[in-house]
């Protein structure tokens, strides 16, 4: 399979800031829907009163994820129809329509319904949201390798995707705590539902901007033969497991989301019952994002000088060190404790920011690696399997952490009034979750992912990509 850069052959627009902003808008659109997932466990335990039921339901819906992600990815890969612009953009458009209401389906406010009715509401709502999210998100991730085949451009796209993700998280993280909690730090579920609807509309607008401003420069010349073998999902899965860069990047991403999503409920609880001010939780997390924002403009030059794997591994080491520091807890002086918490969160976010700004470019390289080793590109399948494992960690992680929280004394019906020892336990649990997350990131990036700067240059040369992909300069 030969890849052709269409920038010069078909007079495509030169890569520039317009491409970066468009790609950032795509992740902004995704996060308008996805960012509220961190509120889901608080909604279903404190407002809907499900507690351990919610942990069980989270695991149940992963069965749908197991079918949903690879199935949609394989459908996209096997789709040979001609589209006006690009098949990935067409699927993103369809997914963005459903996400207008998809996110709100997860927050239908019926706290007085029976337990079984609540279970049905949750499963049905999650299935609807997850289906549309996958239809939009899987092809969106696959687009990175088609916008440009220059690894520096891909690094820029990955960095700007992180920017889109940051701003997509800022709205629910900073503004919503002031809106969806009352004066006693208790959640107002009806307001979450309304917020989800508004964010769905904003996400749709972001997707439309992205679709209209995305330029496809790299295409695959696929010679279709009558006797060509049919697409084989099982074989594609085996190829994915043999793809060390994809597996390493996936382990790191799972670690990242276990930290972000798994600890989300416990973080909310410590601000409710330990620091006793849930409204400032978003501001603290916003402050922790400063390193990510500062590193993003430097990502392109840093990648060219050091390489993506090398940078990301260094970031994971920073996260491990800072997560260990979070175990310094001062329960008899929560003011000083909060300062330490913020400082170590800042360092942790620096490591996470270094990784997140290059993470999607690393997955783009993993897709190229699959083609290098097997001769099949399979963007949709490789990315969908990566997405599946990410989403698995987003479900299994919070479910297991919630079980641990209950074992440590957490009672959802107490809302923002957990007993003091439980609040202290949550403080330690957050530190432990972040440390486990950081260690997984280091394993995936430092020990499994094998596309260092030298190997990447060799792969790009043999695939016939541009010399810039070797990031020699």
Summary keywords:
473 residues, mainly alpha, Growth Hormone, Chain: A, two-stranded antiparallel ribbon, 19 helices, disordered N terminus
Concise synopsis of the structure shown:
The protein is mostly helical. It has helices at 6-9, 17-34, 37-47, 52-78, 87-102, 115-147, 151-180, 189-213, 233-242, 244-262, 264-274, 281-288, 290-295, 299-306, 308-325, 334-374, 379-407, 420-448, 453-463, and strands at 2-5, 218-221. Helix 7 (151-180) packs across helix 14 (299-306) and helix 11 (264-274) runs antiparallel to helix 18 (420-448).
CATH level-four homologous superfamily name: MFS general substrate transporter like domains
Mean pLDDT score: 81
* Number of extended strands: 2
> How many angstroms does the end-to-end distance come to?
28 Å
* Main sheet characteristics: 2 strands, antiparallel
Give the SSE layout:
Elements: E1 2-5, H1 6-9, H2 17-34, H3 37-47, H4 52-78, H5 87-102, H6 115-147, H7 151-180, H8 189-213, E2 218-221, H9 233-242, H10 244-262, H11 264-274, H12 281-288, H13 290-295, H14 299-306, H15 308-325, H16 334-374, H17 379-407, H18 420-448, H19 453-463
Antiparallel strand pairs: 1-2
């Amino acid at each position: 399979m030969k890849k052709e850069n269409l920038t010069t052959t078909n007079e495509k627009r030169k890569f520039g800031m317009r491409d970066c902003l468009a790609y950032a808008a795509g992740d902004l659109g995704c996060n308008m829907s996805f960012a509220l997932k961190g509120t889901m466990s608080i909604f279903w335990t404190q407002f809907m009163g499900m507690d351990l039921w919610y942990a069980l339901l989270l695991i149940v819906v992963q069965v749908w994820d197991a079918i949903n992600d690879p199935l949609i990815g394989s459908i996209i890969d096997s789709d040979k129809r001609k589209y006006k612009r690009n098949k990935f953009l067409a699927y993103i458009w369809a997914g963005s329509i459903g996400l207008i209401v998809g996110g709100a389906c997860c927050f239908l406010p019926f706290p007085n319904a029976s337990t079984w009715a609540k279970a049905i509401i949750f499963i049905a709502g999650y299935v609807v949201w997850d289906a549309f999210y996958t239809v939009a998100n899987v092809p969106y991730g696959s687009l990175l390798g088609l916008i440009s085949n220059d690894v520096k451009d891909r690094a820029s796209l990955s960095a700007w995707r992180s920017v889109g993700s940051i701003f997509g998280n800022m709205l629910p993280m900073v503004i919503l705590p002031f809106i969806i909690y009352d004066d006693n730090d208790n959640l107002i579920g009806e307001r979450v539902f309304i917020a989800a609807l508004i964010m769905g509309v904003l996400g749709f607008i972001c997707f439309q901007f992205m679709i209209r401003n995305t330029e496809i420069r790299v295409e695959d010349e696929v010679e279709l033969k009558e006797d060509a073998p049919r697409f084989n999902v099982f074989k594609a899965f085996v190829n994915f497991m043999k793809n060390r860069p994809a597996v390493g990047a996936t382990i790191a991403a799972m670690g990242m989301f276990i930290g972000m999503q798994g600890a989300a409920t416990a973080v909310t609880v410590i601000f409710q019952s330990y620091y006793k001010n849930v409204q400032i939780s978003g501001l603290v997390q916003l402050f922790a994002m400063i390193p990510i924002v500062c590193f993003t403009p430097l990502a392109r030059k840093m990648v060219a000088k050091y390489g993506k794997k090398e940078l990301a591994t260094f970031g994971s080491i920073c996260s491990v060190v800072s997560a260990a520091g979070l175990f310094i807890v001062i329960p008899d002086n929560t003011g000083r404790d909060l300062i330490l918490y913020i400082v170590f969160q800042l360092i942790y976010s620096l490591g996470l920011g270094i990784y997140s700004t290059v993470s999607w470019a690393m997955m783009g390289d993993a897709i190229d690696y699959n083609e290098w080793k097997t001769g099949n590109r399979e963007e949709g399948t490789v990315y969908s399997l990566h997405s599946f494992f990410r989403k698995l960690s987003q479900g299994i992680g919070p479910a297991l952490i919630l079980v641990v929280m209950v074992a440590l004394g957490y009672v959802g019906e107490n809302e923002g009034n957990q007993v003091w020892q439980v609040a202290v336990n949550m403080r330690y649990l957050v530190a432990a979750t972040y440390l486990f997350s950081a260690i997984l990131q280091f394993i995936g990036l430092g020990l499994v992912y094998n596309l260092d700067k030298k190997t990447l240059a060799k792969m790009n040369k043999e695939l016939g990509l541009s010399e810039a992909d070797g990031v020699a300069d």
